[in-house]
Design goal:
The chain is mainly alpha-helical and 106 residues long. The protein has helices spanning 2-22, 29-49, 55-76, 84-103. Helix 1 packs antiparallel against helix 2. The longest helix has 22 residues, at 55-76.
């Protein structure tokens, strides 16, 4: 159950990062509200996952999901640049997430 909560928290991190970008510095009401709600939900699910997962594992995987997810959303939705260096960086983050999961005893 902790892993499901952690994955959901990571996905919500992507949502709040995207909605924060769309909030124009918290000047638009709807994206600002989405940011705050999904941020609180993401932190809440992360805290539930941390009840049984090690801090380093949970936090690293949570931020990794958020970073790679935001990278993908930036490219696919916002039209951000896709370069070999950015792809390599994302692949390194993914390899770190997989390694952290494999190294976890839980």
């Amino acid at each position: 159950m902790a892993w499901i909560c952690l994955f959901a928290a990571g996905i919500l991190e992507v949502v709040w990062a995207f909605s924060m970008k769309k909030s124009a510095g918290f000047t638009l009401l709807t994206p600002t509200a989405i940011t705050i709600i999904t941020m609180l939900a993401s932190f809440g699910l992360l805290s539930v996952a941390m009840k049984s997962l090690p801090l380093g594992t949970a936090y690293t995987i949570w931020t990794g999901i958020g970073a790679v997810g935001a990278f993908v959303v930036g490219i696919t939705v916002l039209g951000e640049a896709i370069t070999p260096a950015r792809i390599i960086a994302a692949l390194l983050i993914i390899s770190g997430i997989v390694t952290m999961k494999l190294a976890s005893a839980d």
